[in-house]
Amino acid sequence: MNDQPLFARLLNYIEKYQLPLILGLLGVVFIGLGFLGPKISQPKKEEIVLESTKETEGKNIKVDVSGAVKNPGVYSLDEAARVSDAIAAAGGFSLEVDPNWVAKNVNLAAKLTDGQKLYVNTLADASSNTSTQILGTQTANSTININTASEETLDTLPGVGPVTAEKIISGRPYQKTEDLLNRKIVGQATYEKIKDKISVY
Question: Residue 185: which residues within 8 A CB-CB, separation 6 or more?
């Protein structure tokens, strides 16, 4: 009996103050969102970094490989290639290779130069006492290429001993024979003795 009038009064109150109540509720909601908004973690934007990969194309050099190799010929190699790369490109050593000569003269770590002639001694060369220097270090006029000659070959130059030969090898590569003087690897007197016996190519 007492609940009916109370409920009726509540309905009358809501009907009377309907608009203010709605506005009040909306205000509470907006205020609540205002406090909670900063706390809502928004998804982080993934930064996509585009890395431009520039493929550096190295220059190629031409090397003529002949003698005791399986596939003699002219090969195009990277400018940073070594003697070992040229031998591998030619199929490796052939059965005719002179192993003693290779052990004494071939510097597989020597850097190649464009237009270089690489000749590997054969057993026939050994029997005929052919004095071929390491892989093209000697040109037609019998000059020694200081860029690829072995320590033993450099040691044959007048005024050049094992220590100087090692310095020459450590100072590679050379653009011209005068680099031996400019880099103070040999003195003027020694250079005058060997300048006509050495070359760079």
Answer: 164, 167, 168, 171, 179
| CATH assignment at residue 141 | 1.10.150.320
pTM of the model: 0.43
Quote the number of domains for the chain: 1
How far apart CA 38 and CA 17 sit, in angstroms, is 33
**SS3 of residue 64 by DSSP:** strand
Pairing of strands 60-67, 73-78: antiparallel
pLDDT in tens, 49-81: 555 444 445 689 999 998 899 999 999 999 899
Per DSSP, what are the bridge partners of residue 119?
66
Question: Residue 143: how many CB atoms within 10 A of its CB?
Answer: 19
